[in-house]
Amino acid sequence: MRRSQRRIALLALSTLVGSILVTTGPAGADPTGPPAAASQSQPEDRESVRLVHLRLTGADMLDRVAAAGFDLEHGLRRVPNGIEGEAVVTAEQVTELRAMGVEVLDDDAGFAWSDEADGGIGAASARAAQPANHEATVRVVRADWFTTKGQGFLYVEARTTEGQQADPIVGMQLENDSGRGTPFGFARTMSRFVDSGQYMFHRNLFKLDVRPNKIRLTSSTGGVATGVVSNWLEDAPPPLTANPSYKSDFVDGYRHPQQLYSRAKEIARQYPDIAEIVYLPNQTNGYQRKAQAQIGGTGQAAVVVTSTAWGHEGGNDITVDFVGRTDPDLPLEVEVSGKAVRVLLGTDASGAPASTAAEVAEALRTRSAGLIERSHPYRTNAGTGVVAPTAGPVALTDFLDQKRVGAPAGEVPRGPVTIPVLRIGKHRDGKKPGVLIQAQDHAREWVPATTSLESAERLVHNYRSDRETKKIVENTDVFFILSNNPDGANYSFYNFASQRRNLTNHCPDANADPGRRNSWGVDLNRNYRVGSGHDGYAGASTSCVSDTYQGPEELSEPESKNIIWLVEKYKNIKFMMSVHSNGGQLFWQPGAYIADGRITTPRPPLGDEAFYWQSAARILSQVKAHRETVVTPENVGGSSDVLYSSAGNVREDLYHTYGIYAFGWEVGGSVYNPATGDWQGGSFQPEWDGNPELVSGHAETMEYANGIMEMFRVAADWGRDNKNPTSQLVPGAGRYSGPVDVRFETSEPATIYYTTDGSRPTLESPRYAATEFREPGQVFHVTETTTFNWFSVDSAGNIEKNYDPTKSDRRNNYRSATIRIAKR
Known about the structure:
By secondary structure, this protein is of the alpha+beta class. The strands form ten sheets. An eight-stranded mixed sheet has the order 16-24-26-25-27-32-28-31, sandwiched between helices. A five-stranded mixed sheet has the order 11-12-8-7-15, with no helix packed on it. A four-stranded mixed sheet has the order 1-39-37-35, with no helix packed on it. Strand 20 and strand 21 (340-344) form a beta hairpin.
């Protein structure tokens, strides 16, 4: 068993301890691609790519489609009959998708989410009040009210214990009142969601004119539950930008990696008392490619040639000429003069051409004086066709000509890149909580980089003039990786806007021709060690031309190695935000599952889950303050519940391996358009000065920078937290005439360790768990006299009553309560 497998197995077992029954027993894609240096170096014609709307039957189909190489990473939504999303595809690929059973909807139009926008959600805290009844068949998980753009919405999530039943399918009906003291009415049917064959919940988002006070849910099998409606992101404190003297809006357009890194270094030079540069040790592949030519089309006579040297280091100077001869029985020969390679084609007894593509490829590979690294038939061809002479020398090219329309001016430096980390903090001695902001793992996601840079600018410009910013800088240690994928980002800016991965090419000959050049690279957010595709988790591909290619092994890429190096060197890093786009989700663990049975990586303890939710509410409230953009409750929680399984993501590794509170953020989510009544989604590269109320790169940068600034305040508060949590058993100790349902409550997000066998609780004792994922704490149905011994630990490590669970002393100052059940 591999180390990561053992770690997952142990973590999974730890989450199963405890019993509920207690007894004393993109948009913007380049449609043409870069031009070729010579006609026969050009790969097959590429059709224009476009965005299409898809519907898949479920997670299994999603995995198959992703494994086939289709780009389905963003814009996905769970709907009652499957998963809907968007993909960047050609017309030929649309045909292939349909052949796989995917429903392609409305090819030409961008799509907007309906009033009943549905997607994964999460709730670790009890937002809806309901009786603690172990026999209840319906549970209200959450009922949230929020407003945006002058319109009110009610989001409801609920579960039934019979939800897995499919024949007949258990339905659920929602009613709500119109305010305190009004009757229930307005009956509507809730949508049932199933993922990988497992019932998840019923949920819906409804547009309402009046805020309800309560809801009532009734299942088709007769179960009934009521809940109190809570506010979502309402009544938030003003953001830092509300201060008239506060400085913001520093970034005025998209930035390629060279500009980002240059500004990071300049900030460190300008503000040496609070900023410095840390250089990551592992250099990237670089914005560079080997030079190639594809000669003879795509049939059995085609030959693909790749240089040994990088294109800019001499590969682009190589020419290959297939020379025909007419004398009989001539052998296949190769002549090299400088960078010119001449292949003298062999003939048969009649003087006709006789050299096959396989033979020519072998000759080039072995007789080209080291100029040619790879030479092979096209893709999976056997190369049995006879090669035709070329009209003259064919120039090899790396295709990095930087001529994409709309790309920024300036030559991109070739060669490996050393990534700088901008570190900001008054006390950079490892004693303050560290926060890692990692942007642009995925190359085409331009807004995360500008959002992160804007946050850095706000820190240094407001440090001396704004009290709240001063608190952040003096109480946190912030690490900014403004672009974690500089090679891919440059390729996105200058060659192919939809590039997602890095530029490391791990493909074998079958996928190494220049027609695949926009499909090479590793998805950096699938290259980590916990819950990885190598261990059988879903959402990563073994195909080197898939946009979710996981790489040949865990941590194969320098970019992912660098993250691990950073958190191991700077052990004070306790928070991390991996900033992505677009989708408008904020999520954490679990991030992946094994599809068969939907077995997730271990879920965080209830205390950590509650802390994530508390932090998310603070962060998202500040996003809303900018222009009323609401990241809805359905888009917050464990990422495998909110979106899909993403095996080998960075958040999973940092949380489970290093105990870091690791968030993932998809900025640029859907914005409600009151003029149309639709939720309108964003894009990877929205127009910078687009509609400031809807889709705008500038507006997204500003509002999500608000959220990052609030994350810094969360970390600063965490670092200063020395107050012990308190907890209680509800109802408390006492004598009861019959079985009773009890639960724990805490004064703040905290993990409870408990025993029911009279022993003292330790860190090895069962943890108080949720009733179900994203639900409040479990209810214990006590049938016999039972003594609960417990203690609580908050997210900062403070322990209730200063109890030390590692030592046994006379005080034993843990909490204790005895539930006495009268004997009949």
